[in-house]
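Good morning C.,

I know you're traveling, so I'll keep this short. The sequence:
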Amino acid sequence: MLELGVEETVDRRAMKLYDTLLIAELIISVLLIIVVAMQPTKTNNAASAFTGGAEQLFGKQKARGFEAVLQRATVVLGILFFALALALAYIAIH
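The tokens, ready to paste straight into the viewer:
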């Protein structure tokens, strides 16, 4: 049996970690797309954001029920996506 050197063992561990984080990043990105697509629209159309619908878009209305869950999921998945992207970039350059 061929024994691996310390550097080769570290490289293999780093590659396994990189592969695992990359798979997690892909899963989170798909989930993020799904969660964002499931969120209800706030206004009737895009033009209403510039006309009379701006107060609805930027108002202080708090989401309730399923809409609140989707908003929280979007924030959590977005933070995880960003953190994993930073971790993947760090591993790639080292």
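Safe travels,
E.
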